[in-house]
Amino acid sequence: MFPILLDLRGKLVCVIGGGAVGSRKTRAAVDAGASVRVVDPQVTLSLPDPITHITELYRAEHLEGATLVFACATPEVNTRVVADAHQHGIWVNAASSPDAGDFTLPAVVRRGGLTLAVSTEGASPALARRIREKLESEFDNIFAVWVQILAEVRTEVLATVADEVRRRELLDSFADWSWLTRLRAEGTEAVRQAMRACL
């Protein structure tokens, strides 16, 4: 497996099947900025934008315009969805048969701009979940603040420090764990100013 983070902002994602698994995939796609088309004849939920709900039995035409597809219906329907997606050159994830699709989803921890992903390549989703739970407790929300400060300071370093070696040294030093300790003890603004003082 090749790990990758996809930018789905403004892209269409099709979710075939609106049950529990389909709902999770739908939420994840919306959180990633995608527009989502859910195809399920039985789901009667009112879905807000950017979700379109098609209350029909699945047809290959439902995949038109999609960048990514999640097959979350019955195994029989999922087999058809995978075949149709492959025929149209669309990456597909098959909930009932992960090996039939093109990708699997890792267990994910998000803290602002920090994303931690854990995968066992389908060998043990339970283990991936347990590792994710451990990471959630170890990487708290202060990491989101640290990443945001690093993003701000990186922009300033690139704009003001001409020497490439010095830029690399500064950016590497700002990612040192000691800054996290200072952030917890001194707060956001103090750390931001201390990093800027290093410039």
What secondary-structure arrangement, pairings included, does this model have?
Elements: E1 12-16, H1 20-31, E2 35-39, E3 51-54, E4 68-71, H2 75-87, E5 91-94, E6 107-111, E7 114-118, H3 125-138, H4 142-160, H5 164-174, H6 177-186, H7 188-197
Parallel strand pairs: 1-2, 1-4, 2-3, 4-5
Antiparallel strand pairs: 6-7
Helix pairs in contact: 4-5, 4-7, 6-7
Task: Tell me what the structure shows.
With 199 residues, the chain is α/β, with parallel strands linked by helices. The protein folds into three domains: 105 residues, 3-Layer(aba) Sandwich (Rossmann fold), CATH 3.40.50.720; 34 residues, Double Stranded RNA Binding Domain; 56 residues. Helix content is 45%, strand content 16%. α4 runs antiparallel to α5, α4 runs parallel beside α7 and α6 crosses α7. It is elongated and about 60 Å long. The mean pLDDT is 93.
